[in-house]
Queue: 3 jobs
Job 1
Amino acid sequence: MQRSRSPFPPRPRSAAFAAALSLVTLSFAISTLAAAAPASTPGQSKFAFAPDTAPAGFTAVAPATLYSDARGYGFEPGAAPGGPAYFSVDLAEGNYDVTVTLGDDKAAASTTVKAELRRLMLENVQTAPGQTVTRRFTVNVRTPRIAAANGIEAGEVRLKAPRETVQEAWAWDRRLTLEFNGSHPAVRNIEIAPAAVPTLFLLGDSTVCDQPGEPYASWGQMLPRFFKPGVAVANHGESGETYRDALARRRTDKILSSLRPGDTVVMQFGHNDQKQIKDGKGGPFTTYKAEIKAHVAAVRARGGVPVIVSPMERRGFDAQGKVLPSLADYAEAARQSARELDVAFIDLNAMSRTLYEALGPEGSKRAFAEPAPGKLDNTHHNAYGSYELAKAIVTGLQAARLPVAAFVVDGFRFDPSRPDPVAAFSVPPSPQVTHERPLGDEANK
């Protein structure tokens, strides 16, 4: 698909920015099928960030090299001097292992890597002057195309324009885009190779999907950070949607066409389903449960592992500091469905209430998006809130003893009654900023 080349307004890359990239060793070398480099596995690419010391088989790329279709790789335009840098490379749809070598010969460095649309992969990797470290993560690249497979007809996901075709286009194009962020990002080498690994599919609403700009974020964007290489997180959620919308827009078909036996499908809806009651088109214990049942049956028929997640609560407190329930019926319907269908269940509704109450009426404000001063969004989260909810999801996967939990990072621990201190949270924000509220749930601002 064609996309706007950047989700934030493009600006010419300045000489000062090119110099800054060299200073932090962000000069790339890439081997692609179109580049003059030794033959390699199809889909494999190699990147070296210090042109003078590029290893054999790596193709040096100057810091000022912008992406072009003919070249098939390059920096995305629009980054401010000294700010985060974005690099894209053409890749076919699929899962890939990405290996990065980090470090600066002359200075201490701190590097955070995000993929595609702000999916957190590596968080604040620290290196001393002269030190190098190697890290690997697994990432999913996808397009709207639906191939005929697993009994699914060919076609395309019905993307929302302009939200998905412009602001969220990086999540759908035939490219891998990497964001290098941090106080002093230092990336020396990158290698990309196809990965025949399990996929953890996500299906949900605005609290799950890849949000395009700060201050909004979702637990789905934070989830990859808590998994080791060897499993890819493929986020098919979208703002404003329900189980019914996922079927109508063929997001469910897209997942089912790509699903391999043993893959996991985590599903969380509820916030927007409440509008169906208002419109007289269903309710939690009727249509909502029926749509859950249909999804579970479809996933199981193709050898997948379905997981039902109850929707997290909105922020609202009574006089005693207890969270006011706004989604209790949908949480109960999800719980009943999981029990009746014998499906793994993550009670994010309960864990979110525990989390918010632990933070308190005032402290919990720092877990939610504030798109304008004094204007708090009590439904949608910021990076910190999403990070904590992602930990709750991981905790639920472990408690359910699902096979995918074997890939959780070593030493993982989380107790929603004892959340991470807000002051200690330091994931650097991406430069994309939006004042547009995510779609749906308009009655609950």
Job 2
Amino acid sequence: MARTASPVGPAKPLDPGTEQIQADPAVADLLGVLRRHLAMDVAFLGRLDEQCLLLQVFDGDPAAFGLAPGSTVRRHAALYPTALAHDAPIVIPDTQADRRTAQAPIVQGLGIGSYAAALVYDNDDEVYGLVGCLGRQPRPHLRPRDGQFVDLLAAFLRDAVIDLRRVWESRSHLSRIISDLIDDGGPQIVFQPVVSLADGSIAGVEALSRFPDSHRDPEGWFKVAAQVGLGTELELAAIRHALTALPGLPPSVALSLNAAPATIASGLLGLLRSFGACDRVIVEITEHEYFSTDPVVMRDIQALRSLGTRIAVDDTGTGYAGLEQLIQLRPEIVKLDYLITHLMDVDPARRAVAAAIVSVAREIGGQVIAEGIESTAELRTATEIGIGFGQGYLLGRPARTLRAACSPTPGLFRPDPAPAPAR
């Protein structure tokens, strides 16, 4: 998460609704002009409210100061009150030598050696926020007249802050909605069966999130949650909700849970342990970031495996990254993406890719689940090339109850009739 600059040292977590504010690229370009003109390390634009300065856009390396888009600085701890005292911009070439800032805790806490800032107004001539620059070291070349350049740039930002305000209000609204959803126990959970293609028995159910009364699909909800810093929390809430169904699940049926690498590294192991569920679940890793290079994620994946959890990877076959993760992770379960499964009965290329994935899975000791089986021809092809398990509307739609999800679809797996006796 982004961090709040403390007057005395380490930053504390910020309300996730304030993270990752997006702006017109022109804003960042203007900040770049300012930073280079003043020869400083970071330029910023922030929005002021009654409590703090919310830092929205940067140019340079804000991490060098322990900052990120969405960080806040409390009013009483900040350097900017001196800028608010009058309309003129402020330029401080050496924060340690200037009596206004020498004792400011934030100077020590963030390591600020030089500072320049000016107020930004909106089109109603109301103060929107602050634009400025930070330097790690003193900048003796700075002169009071450099403040006029900061002020000039602040005037150019007048129109841009209207869009920033609109984005901020939208993100704040979405953050409140998602926070309320998490507080209410997370999204609704439905269960889609995973079927053995050998005999039609139910081998598992995948827990899927549903968000009622919304035009967004589930993936869209999790994307928005990630944008306001609540993606992991929302995903953990969905997993927690799904795990409450475990007592009603037949012992022979596994529960498949979707988790991004960040969720795996943010307490998933402890959550599964609290439900006594490690050996009853499959953790399906979503998102195709290069998590195999993240030691924390890989450590927790191995810890899950040591407790009996099986690991699955999804969307296999749709890109180089997915294949690389398959080789690096060697999951127990490989999920063949719908884009490959769909029409593979009539498309030799899709069929060839599916067969290759089956071969790779066999070599690493894994099993394959074909997603998106929607026709008997696709089902037949999946069986012919050696895919052991399937998912899709033909085999079973997502159901609100485990009982419905664990009821095999009749008629699909009838045994072949015995040949007629010879006459």
Job 3
Amino acid sequence: MSDQVVTRFAPSPTGYLHIGGARTALFNWLYARGRGGKFLLRIEDTDRARSTPEATAAILKGMEWLGLDHDGEAVSQAAGAERHAEVAHELLAKGAAYKCFSTQDEIEAFREAARAEGRSTLFQSPWRDADPASHPDAPYVVRLKTPRDGETVIQDQVQGDVRIRNDQLDDMILLRSDGTPVYMLAVVVDDHDMGVTHVIRGDDHLNNAARQMGIYTAMDWPTPTYAHIPLIHGPDGKKLSKRHGALGVEEYQAMGYPAAGMRNYLARLGWSHGDDEFFTDAQAKEWFDLNGIGKSPARLDFKKLENICGQHIAVSEDAALLQEIKGYLAAAGKDALSAAQEHGLLTALYCLKERARTFPDLLEKAHFILTSTPVEPDEKAAKSLDTVSRGILGSLTPHLQNASWTRDDLEAVLNRFAEDQGTKFGKLAAPMRAALAGRAATPSVFDMMLVLGREETLARLTQAAATEDS
């Protein structure tokens, strides 16, 4: 086995990319990327009835949005069915597996008798050590011979050593009676063939690990390093479900969270590096390690998510932010920006991104640059445009005609004008916000004037001053 770290993410394409799955993918991606390793993607589509191409597309789209790039092509598990069956036949030839001819009725009768006698209902096949000469010409399944005594120890990087008595494990079916391989066999063969060194997955797979290790041992293959991570719970501490809100990653994009903020938040969900809450991708790749993963379930906290996302919006480069906002609008099914709106937004981002926590939040603050003249004030803003205020705006306009359009000069002109009116600039701010943006909560008046420019600023102030009371 090479020294290169190889991790994988192996979702079942039966629906969207679940937030828990996204975090599993992220942990695998960080672990591999931080060590110069490979991060592989396998679509576990052996359940043909439930797997759909649409679900596969949704998973790939969710990973693309999150920025979790994988090495090589995505592998289809179903496509490897012949290879999986080949390994089962190899195990048969080695005597590590056997043909079991027991019918469903016989298995049920065994369990009923065991229940009545208070014995373990774990099925013990009478065919385990039968002479092949006594095999009937009838349908059979292929079962793995699990050791009956001793214990299986999973040396887990998160859970510690997990010990399971072998008499608690059944002789797992490898091939069904129609000759098709089961999922548990496929996972092991694929992980081995793909060279996976570290299996990082949800702790709901912990029991599977003990059964899967039986195949590794029987085939004399090296066992990967296991790390079973606790699941994500809702804010109330219960298993995450629809009642807690969004479960699919694409819903978070459509709600307007930036991908970098989402990666940062998901990385912190169940893993920690000292007291660090906010960090970059580069830091996450450098710091991420399995021993930083906690043993108890993490809780989804939307306030924390918004807080982290706000910090990422604030430090994003404007051009990249604009691209992501366009992606959000498409994901949310909202109208695309016009070329003029895009240009205006790009110019204004410097004064919008500091306090925005999500993209809807940012776009609300950007209303002044996205709207067009005549500006329609909303109910709250309209209250600031009474007769007196409109008169003041009318008097102010000539003072701005010849101002040099810099922040210092504009501040000086407005402060001087307020003084002449016997008031403070703060009193001018509300009607000016209403006139320039049609909103009561906006970026600073000076930022809006600088972004809008002299002509547009004067046009909006003049229009507001001339508006009659309705």
